[in-house]
Amino acid sequence: MGLEEEIAGLAEKYGWSVQLRRKHGKRIQDLVLSRGGLVLVLQVKDLSAPADPRAVSQTKQDYDEFIKRLLRERLGMTGLMKSKNC
């Protein structure tokens, strides 16, 4: 069992809804946990070696894309966060 599955098992044990490897747009999130209107997006990284800047940048891009999708799907907001600095 991988780390993602271990985290998913613990989250379910404590009442979280879990989605493993959720794809949205061009991105894939490792875990999406939700409970009581709260949504947590987790990217699991192997830190047996230091993370390189590309991995950190990729995680930030994944986060930004997921937030945009949530705003579109849940709140009907469009045209937000067009700037790379948002």
Helix and strand run: HEEEH
The helical percent reads 25-40%
**Averaging pLDDT over every residue, what do you get?**
76
- CATH T-level fold name: Trna Endonuclease, Chain: A, domain 1
- Label the overall shape: flat
CATH architecture tag? 3-Layer(aba) Sandwich
Unreliable spans are none
Strand pairing plus helix content: what structural class?
alpha+beta
Question: What count of helical segments does DSSP give?
Answer: 2
> What's the alpha carbon Rg, rounded to whole Å?
14 Å
Terminal CA distance reads: 36 Å
Largest sheet: 3 strands, antiparallel
SSE map:
Layout: H1 3-13, E1 17-24, E2 27-35, E3 38-42, H2 53-75
Antiparallel strand pairs: 1-2, 2-3
Task: Walk me through what this model shows.
With 86 residues, the protein is an alpha+beta fold. The protein has a single domain, classed as 3-Layer(aba) Sandwich (Trna Endonuclease, Chain: A, domain 1). Helices cover 40% and strands 26% of the residues. The chain has a three-stranded antiparallel beta sheet with strand order 1-2-3. Strand 1 and strand 2 (27-35) form a beta hairpin. The mean pLDDT is 76.
